[in-house]
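User: Sequence for beta-N-acetylhexosaminidase below. Tokens please.
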Amino acid sequence: MKKYILIILILFSPLTVFVQADNLTSPLNSIVPRPVQIVPGSGNFIFSAKTLFVVENEEQAAIVCNFIDLFTRAAGITPALNIREGKGQVCFTTDSSLKSEAYLLEITPEQIRVKASDTKGFFYALQSIRQLLPAAIESEQPVRNIIWSIPAVTIQDEPRFGFRGLLLDPVRCFIPKENVLRIIDCMAMLKINKLHFHLTDDNGWRIEIKKYPRLTEVGAWRVDRTDVPFHSRRNPERGEPTPIGGFYTQEEIREIVAYAADRQIEVIPEIDVPAHSNAALAAYPQFACPVVKDFIGVLPGLGGKNSEIIYCAGNDSVFTFLQDIFDEILTLFPSRYIHVGGDEARKTNWEKCPLCQKRMKKQRLANEEDLQGYFMKRLSDYLRKKGREVIGWDELTNSSFLPEESIILGWQGMGTAALKAAEKGHRFIMTPARIMYLIRYQGPQWFEPVTYFGNNTLKDVFDYEPVQKDWKPEYESLLMGIQACMWTEFCNKPEDVDYLLFPRLAALAEVAWTPAGTKDWSGFLKRMDAYNAHIAEKGIIYARSMYNIQQTVTPIDGHLEVNLECFRPDVEIRYTLNGSDPAMSSHRYDGPIRVTQTQMVKAATFMNGKQMGETLELQLTCNKAMAKPLLGNKQNEKLLVNGLRGSLKYTDFEWCNWNRNDSISFTIDLLGKEKLNKFAIGCITNYGMGAHKPKMIRVEVSDDNRVYRTIGELNFSPEEIYKEGTYKNDYSIDMGGVSARYVRVTAKGAGICPDNHVRPGQEARVYFDEVILE
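Assistant: Structure tokens for beta-N-acetylhexosaminidase:
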């Protein structure tokens, strides 16, 4: 008897998973996010035209109809559906003991039994069945010669967090309704239940408002600057054509909301105030501060000083305008939550505006941050009276007037500003930019489309743990969940959005659903591959960045050590040193490659004999500085002598930069006297990110590291420094055959970017990639 009890305990332990064959048809390798408990059985259940679904009510019938439609399109069969009648092969039973969104799924060769306490749970059970089916179930056309079978399995499942969100930004890049619907369906398959719809910003107004038609007539359209990256685009001039944009009609919004609701997704609209409002103010400039005399246009990029133009906090008609807008928004979106923005509001004009200053005096506000607090509280109170709950970005915590019962979305850095709200008892959601902003690079940057701000890889998203060890216990109870943000600054078409979203969205789902401490990277990759096959059938071209190689080239004792890594552990790396392309017959990478001379290293990843990623090409070039030590042994400066040039992406880990740009200095020890004819150094300009050449570069030499003599100096004018564009230059100095052991390089940054720069007031940063001595 004890033996049987032990077996039962093992079977139903929440940490128990029984392993079937290692293939994509195994339930262990098919469902994202991973269920809490999954016990494989024996045999398979096969769907056919004779399959009968029996449900209890109309709500259950509605979600089953959508599921049956998959078979109608892809299989050319239509299983039957009855409400409370018949002996079905797929049976729904309400079990009130289960939590909301939880489900119990029992699949045998003869029958499928589904239990849940609400429609959400039944829907998620169907999504798990959907992922167990062949990927061809997503086809829009009938597919022949497919057996529509799923493996026998018992699944008990429930989410870790109630709020599992994705922000979608159709402002910077307009996303047509059809593409939004497809993304929603892919979200639903992953059991993501909140769509944060970022509908307004400086770069466009994307929703029809009947009372204020100019919001879309003017605010939805901007000048064409698509030949220049987002961060480098100049502001519009009065009278320029504005062909770029688009918006959703109210009927399209209703369709999106209904489509999402059918898939258990709540659409949360965001109307961003008081900042990120140039599109609205381009249409209705009277709602800006009266001190603003410049032309207000819809911004094609960052905007520079123009982004400081925000709603006037001292003008009562602004609040009437916004309340009118929200009145229409509330009729379109039945969501419990409304997002009001509140981020990145620079108070330059409020400080000069007589109306804003009068408001501050009347309300006895200490500063402009509290004026924003007043602004947000006044609007939030209006929405709360309408029965809605307000979400805002974490800048709301900068004011002592944190709107009552507001929910804070923690985004800056690691999102820790949200904890200031938690300290006051406010609920919060985590979406840290350093991990959950999907606009960042998702793999080795040499292969990726241009964006900015470094890497947020698939592995980074998967590894994220929102609940930190140093949190106070009460914080966790206030954490509603997590969200990823798909900003579209560097997208020019809907396919660009898909590329950045997938497959990282699957990693978000895994973090949001899976119990803490139970994630498994290797298992996730297999399940994600099965999910990717499903979305590929839907026409989505997902990123394959996870198969690409990241290199680290380090100078060590006179030679270079080349390390290659891919964050997929199930691939192998093959490489060549003779210039040929790698193949399965090439050297297998098992550890660092030693390089002592000019060398071309080519490498790629392989799985089951097939090349999976792009070919990495590393041209390592020998010169008298290569692999020589730098005094002080600073890690970042080793990039200057590692023989590898950087790409046009200054964050690709091959560009050296400094915390202070006003006095850059480093010294190379050649380990003996060398005859030197030429000095050269590589420098990158990325105008939009404020990366510029220094105003001065000086080269000095010494025999003893005490007495130095100047060999040459380069100086650059502001016109040369702030030239627009993204490009690399090598700057050289004739050394005249001097003999020396030590070479010291000094550089001085250009200082603060001027007022007409796209990043006025920001320090110009210096980036060098390689020192070359001949």
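The longest strand covers residues 664-686.
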